[in-house]
């Protein structure tokens, strides 16, 4: 992990915070794609499992947090579609 | 790269296809967070640069494609907000 990859990991992981806060606040999920979040949640879960398998804590941390945030967005999309 | 990481990379990268198609088709970007896509586009661009620096073609390919797809979504968000 060098500086670029740490900044990249923080940005891609934390970018889901404003999206999660927006759907929680507005409950407006019309523009959000169910297909995207269905695929994305499974994808980051698999990344987290891969991180556990190879004992890579950066991979586990970044993808674990992204999984939680994307799951919130997916839950709101399913609830308020 | 093992099977889990390949499937994970395909899912997280290709998940942006249905979201990009949806914004192109509907131009409805109300539910989409500008903050998310601003951070995410810069983040995947940095991942792509990191991939170029360490000569990792999987990293370059997955993040390069994600960068293009997320840029389309960000462009529509800025144009039709």
Automatic annotation (TrEMBL), chains A, B:
Keywords: Membrane, Transmembrane, Transmembrane helix. Coiled coil: none annotated. Gene3D superfamilies: 1.20.1280.290. It is a multi-pass membrane protein. The chain crosses the membrane at residues 32-50, 57-76. InterPro entries: PQ-loop_rpt, SemiSWEET. It comes from the Bacteria. It is found in: Membrane. NCBIfam families: SemiSWEET_2. This is MtN3 and saliva related transmembrane protein. It comes from Breznakia pachnodae.
